[in-house]
Amino acid sequence: MTGAPGVLSETGRLRAVLVCEPGPAQARLTPATCDAMLFDDVMWLERARSDHRAFRAELEYRGVEVVELRDLLIETVAKAPARKALIDARITSDTVGLGLRDEVRAWARELPADALADLLMGGLSVEEVPGPAKGLTAAILGADGLLVAPLPNLMFPRDSSAWIGGGVLRGSMRFPVRADETAILRTIHDHHPRFREAAHPWPVPGSAPLEGGDLMVLTPQTILVGMGERTAPQAVGQMARALFDAGQVERVIACTMPKGRASMHLDTVFTLCGPDLATTYGDVSGGIACHSVRPGTAPGTLDVRPEPAPFAGVVAAALGQTRLRIVETGGDRYVRAREQWDDGNNVLAVAPNVVLAYDRNTRTNTALRRAGVEVITFPGGELGRGRGGPRCLSCPLTRDAAEV
Ligand SMILES: NC(=[NH2+])NCCC[C@H](N)C(=O)O
């Protein structure tokens, strides 16, 4: 096992990463429910699972320790206090109904750890509840009605938690369908032996939205955060205060983005591949404006200043580079729009200038290769149906500082 978790950059050597293979949660997606679950289509689950294993194999081949979320959850719910916390959080009067709550909780407490993990991630339908008398909620929802909602976006663990240095930030999810992902991650951090001693949470007190796909650790001292559809400036201010108070970082670069699904997180239009190289979707990243947030002179205050330079220049300087080499989404404007939508600019660096990418983004991958990046591809046809690429499929736990 790799040592204590800690993330010091975006492109230094990746040592350990959290992933989440599609499973029971995605099996519940139907054409009627996928939109509400933030998926653009249903999934061919068997293929998605084997494609995810290809992703995992490439990571392992590169020497990265791959940690599966379901395994962590099984080991976590093996401990009684964690089991109770998660059962009480997900099986409530609001989910299964007042009539069933105590009975389902008692039943869940006795489940084997793997079955409980599948329930917590994959949800619970009326017919899965044992016993005949199920109360009003069950009668109205019908046999296949869902009492506990599945969490299909757990397969994008980038968003629900993010490591900054040796501490972890819990996502405050913009949409309620993703809120319970954070409860699961929080319980794992608090109870699993891998994290219990090592992980300290960065305390961001409020509930303003903040998602990991918007966060990038540029250097141990500077982080970059996008504010578009998902992350709000109110959350960024609170996060900056928490990180400054802890002496963790000196500067937060907060950048504005359009609020749209195609650019839901900063990492959908911009990812770093190496110390001075990024891939971007210029149609959006060209309009990004930055503010720098630093500790103010009076205690507890923030010093906020607009950055006059364009986005790429601000990021380059923060990285200690004279300029950032940019690889734009490849192809003509039609291809570019499609490859950006299919997460062509959402790659995962496993080492400086070595990235994992979806195979389908052929033009962008070729452009990256021409710029000297080693691009390792795996199939994205099924995995991408929830609008997330390799960076979203992963939450780095341990990553070295970048070489400048
Ligand atoms: N870091 C990312 N870009 N994550 C993508 C998350 C996709 C997910 N279906 C959502 O809409 O929330």
TrEMBL record:
It comes from Jannaschia donghaensis. One of its GO terms (molecular function) is arginine deiminase activity. SUPFAM superfamilies: Pentein. Belongs to the arginine deiminase family. This is Arginine deiminase. The active site is at 392 (amidino-cysteine intermediate). Its EC number is 3.5.3.6. NCBIfam families: PRK01388.1.
